[in-house]
Every structure is written in structure tokens, then in C-alpha cells.
Amino acid sequence: MKKIILTLVMSYFVVFSLAQEGVTFQVEELSKPEKALDVKAYEEIYEELILKDYELRKWDVKDRKLKVQYDILAKSNAPDSLVSFGYHSFFNGMYTAYADHRPFVLSPDMMWLLISQGFARHIHSNPEKYRKYFVDFKGKTSLVVLSETDLLHETNPTRWEDVLNKFDSQMAKHTGKEIVDLLTANFSTTGITEKVASQINIMKAMEPYFEFVVLYIACGIPEITLQGTTEDWKKVLDKAQKLKKYDLAWWIDEIEPLLKEFINASEGKVNKKFWRNMFKYHTKKQYGASNVIDGWIVKFFPYDKDGKRNNLKSLNGTSSLPEEMVKVDVKYIQTGNGQTTETMLELWSGFVGLKQDPKTFALTPQISWMVRKKDVNNSFLLQKIKSDNDSYKIQLRVDEVPEILKELKEINKLDLYFNKRVSIPEWLKNIPIKELSIYGDISQQEKEKILKWFDASTIISINRESYKNGKPIDGIRIVP
């Protein structure tokens, strides 16, 4: 039987660039990829990410004739076309490089963004526990930045760069400069896009303690390339070590040895065994399960998408990975001429896709940021739900039942998949529902309450057990 070895391929020699110091090194000699990966337009990638938040694809919109307002106000500069893997372009891009023998490019900014995203999720896991490290007040304090131009009609990204610098300064007045400076990207590879992306991530980390307000007053893997210098990589290690005091030693201790290998490689001391194990351990005679990833890259993802700690040893596929984009709410207030209007915005930052070298097919993760109007009234979600209700059934994965369902006079079929413990609000029993299916961890008390609320007109399924009028269908009851 023919065996296929999936490995990272690296170059045969070390290369130093005059424009920006870096090192390229060989890990293994493997066949070159046969063709380039498909690419998408930069704008289209963000549109698809927005649709993904509604569990939709482009063809869904066209087929169901949905009207979508993407409301993208501004975004960072990036190549016109990128390889895209949705919300996991860094991780799945690296995996594709590993599987297809494609060179891969890493920079201090990329690895630091992964670390700082992990830090933000750590703070969000228990914000009150860590409040004492950053602020001396309860609740949230509003940080207000004055804008000289109307940002709702301004596509120039430099205007937002100025706004984010001001938010940084205001946060530092409360948290101290140390944490703001620590989390801000400041390497030789850092451009304005990478810096802004890191600033938005700081806002995400501090979101439990601050409300961000903008006020406009109208007066009318075959080859790994490490970008940056050895000093840059030492700085990544130093910055990471300074995060330990935020109850993060359990994570930073795990990635310290990895970051030291980055330093060694930047000095030309390449540990090929280490770089071969970026993804699951392998030799030419040993193969792992294709759906288990246990290489060292998993250590850079300390939390899963539900905010639970990963074991830092392996991942069962990528379904539990957190998104590589963070989103921060910003309140935009426009006042003047006796009128004041409020518009809720979202700042996005993270990995949007991968640049692809047309000759070597090397993949380079692309850091990006974007600003859009937030759909606070869930108008598009309501449009989707009504379309689902008319065509077949409504399927929602939720922490809690969205109140937008109140807008429906009746529901044909409703499937609710709970990320947390099942909790059905009392108002839902007032909406006629033909079939209600509930999935998730549920208490006996909650189950009995639900069965009492809905009469014989509703067929209820709870974790695949069916009931009608409070009794099991066909007389079958499975006690949990």
C-alpha cells in the first residue's frame, strides 16, 4: 500500500534579506507542490466571515434572495487576493503547508498576535479575578475619543489608526503603560497594520473594564522563513515572560522552550527535529491519526472557542479552535446642530488569510483589521430566521435563546443547540411551535418545566427523546 508522508518542507540554505533580516532553513527534502492554492478577493473574505457569523454562505444568500448589508467602513491594506480558511487561516494555512509540502513564513508579529489573543481569552475567562491587575474601579469606565472627521463616511484607514492610538493612551492612564506597551507589537517587522491589529487585541483584553466610545462633533510548510531579527524573537520571549504574573505561568512555561527555538533558528542554529514536529510527531516510518494534531503549535492556543483551557498537548481536529479574529464593540456618537445619533460599530483584528508566493507557493499569514457597523437590531438574523422558518426549520447554536424569536408569530420547526446548560425562557411558550428540538446539558427540573409549558400541539425532542403533551411518544422514556 502506498504511504503518504505529510511533513513540513524547508529550504536548503540560510538566506538573509537586506530589506528585512530573516532566515530561511531546510527541515526536510520533499517534493514541491504541484500548483497554487485557490485565492479569494480580500473584500470577499471579510464578507464571507460576516456571513459565517449567521451560519450562511454566499450561495445561501443568492439562492434565498437575502439582502445583506455588510456595512464595512474601513479595513487595513492587504494584497488584492489571499488564500482563505475562514476564521482559522493561520492554523489551517499551516496545516495545508504541512500536508502539501508548501513553504511557510512566520514573523514575530504573527506569533505575538497568537500569544496576545490567548492572553485576551485568559482575561475574559475570569475578568473579575484579574481586575486588580489593571484597574481600581468596579464595572466599566467609558473611554471617549474625539474624531475630527465623520468615520461613518471615511474609508481611509489612517483615521482609525489615529483613533486606536488615542484609545491606547487612555487605557494606559488607568492600567498603566506597562501592560499597553507589553501587548503592543513593536518588532522590526511591525508595520502599521500589525500594530493596529495588536491595539485592537488590547481593547479586547480590556473590554470587561472599558466601554469604547468615538465622538464626532459635526460642525457642519516545505520551507520556513522567520522574518525579523534575533532581537525581535528575543523580545517576543521577553514580552511573553512578563505575562506570567497574570496567572499565566501554566501557559507561558509551555511556550518558553518553543520561543527559544525561534531564537536559535534566527541565529542559524536550526533544530530540524523541532521544526518537523510543528504538527503531529512523525518519522518516515510512523504516522499518526489524521484527525489528531499534537505538534507544538497547539500550545499557542491555550483556550478553546468556549473559553475552556486546552490541554496544550493535542487537538481533536479544528472544530474547537477559537476564532483567529477578535471583535470589539465601539460606540460612535455623532452630535451637532442640536441632534445626537449613536451608531454601534465593531472593530475586527486577526488573521484574515494567507499571501501566496506565485513561484514557490510559500504561504504567509496575513494580519488584518476592519471596522463595520454592528447589526444591533439583528435585522439580517431576523431575515435569515424568517427564511428558515418559511422553507424548512430554524437551527440555532446559542448560549441563550435569542429574543429576536419574539418577532415570529409562529414557528414550524426550531432546533436549539446549547453551548452552555439548557435554559428555555418563559416567553417562548407563548409562540406556537409545531416541533421543538433541544440539544445540550439539561437538568431534570428544566426538562420537566419545558414539558409542562408546551401542550399537545407541540412535539418536543430533548436530546433525541421525543415527547408530546408531556409524555414520551410510543411510551418510551429514557431516564438521563
UniProtKB/TrEMBL annotation:
Where does the source fall among the domains of life?
Bacteria
Q: What is the lineage of its organism?
A: Bacteria, Pseudomonadati, Bacteroidota, Flavobacteriia, Flavobacteriales
**Name this polypeptide is given:** DUF4419 domain-containing protein
Q: Which InterPro entries match?
A: DUF4419
Please provide the record's keywords in A-Z order: Signal
Pfam families in the cross-refs: DUF4419
Q: What organism does this protein naturally occur in?
A: Capnocytophaga cynodegmi
- Keyword check for Transmembrane helix: no
PANTHER family found in the cross-reference section: DUF4419 DOMAIN-CONTAINING PROTEIN
Query: Which region is the signal sequence?
Result: 1-19
